[in-house]
Structures are given as structure tokens and as C-alpha cells.
Design a protein that fits this description.
Elements (H helix, E strand, L loop, with lengths): L1 H12 L12 E4 L2 E4 L9 H5 L9 E7 L3 E4 L5 H10 L4 H27 L3 H19 L4
């Protein structure tokens, strides 16, 4: 549950619009089941940066539940995550801890990813920078 809720939050922070249920798979192991590694994580920030996608048109594949179901990225706010957690049977206090854990570490992780991308190519560096900037802007919503 923790990994799944973290993934949903990260999909929103990254504006990863294709994060639908079919991208989550379970693997059966001798000890039970586990969530498989995430795949098909595509951020809309690169498209928005070059003017091909207005931020208000970014629509997530899976809704975040507040009083209403929120699919449009710009209508999802930090307060919705507690309500969303409760609506799917996840402890809202645990969601708060998940948010704190991610927000405390994310900027450093983005810096590492940006450095790695810069070592690959200019295009990879530009994409990573667009994702970094967009994600940090989304992250600011938790600190205001």
C-alpha cells in the first residue's frame, strides 16, 4: 500500500499523465505478492515547456478523490491526498507520513537524475530540467 500511494503521489508531482491502473502489476513470490517496478512514467512537463500542452489541459489517468474526483492536474491540491487516502482505505496519517518522506527527499533525487541526464545528452538534460522545474513547482504546494 505504501508503495502504491507513493507512486500515485509521485505521478502527480511529475505530472505523469499515463499513470493508470494497467501500469501497476503484482508479482507473486514465495513470500506473497509485491508491486512490480513502475514503468511507462512519462512526465507532461516537457510538453508543457515547449508550448505543446497548457498546464490546465494536463489530465491524469487516475483521479485523486477529494469531495469530487479530480483528474485535471491543476485541480489536485495537497489537501486532497488525505481525503483520497481515506477513500481508498489507506490511513490518512500514514499518507501524511508518505508525503513528508517524499517531499523531504525529492529535490535531492531530482538533482541526481538531472546530473545523470546531463551526462547522456543535451536533449536528456533539457528534458530532465523541465521535469525538475515542474516537479519542484508542484512540490511548493506542500510548503505554502
Amino acid at each position: 500500500q505504501d508503495t502504491f500511494m507513493s507512486a500515485q503521489l509521485l505521478y502527480w508531482l511529475f505530472a505523469a499523465i499515463d499513470g493508470h491502473a494497467k501500469n501497476f502489476s503484482l508479482a507473486l513470490t514465495p513470500k506473497g505478492y509485491r508491486l512490480t517496478p513502475l514503468y511507462d512514467v512519462l512526465s507532461a512537463y516537457g510538453f508543457a515547456q515547449v508550448g505543446n500542452l497548457h498546464p490546465k489541459k494536463i489530465k491524469m489517468a487516475m483521479a485523486v478523490n477529494g469531495k469530487n474526483r479530480h483528474y485535471h492536474w491543476h485541480t489536485i491540491f495537497p489537501r486532497h491526498w488525505r481525503t483520497h487516502a481515506k477513500s481508498v482505505g489507506y490511513d490518512p496519517d500514514r499518507m501524511d507520513s508518505t508525503i513528508e518522506n517524499i517531499t523531504a527527499k525529492l529535490e535531492a533525487c531530482l538533482d541526481i537524475a538531472s546530473e545523470e541526464a546531463a551526462s547522456i545528452s543535451i536533449r536528456a538534460e533539457q528534458s530532465a530540467e523541465a521535469i525538475r522545474k515542474g516537479t519542484l513547482k508542484a512540490l511548493e504546494r506542500f510548503t505554502v
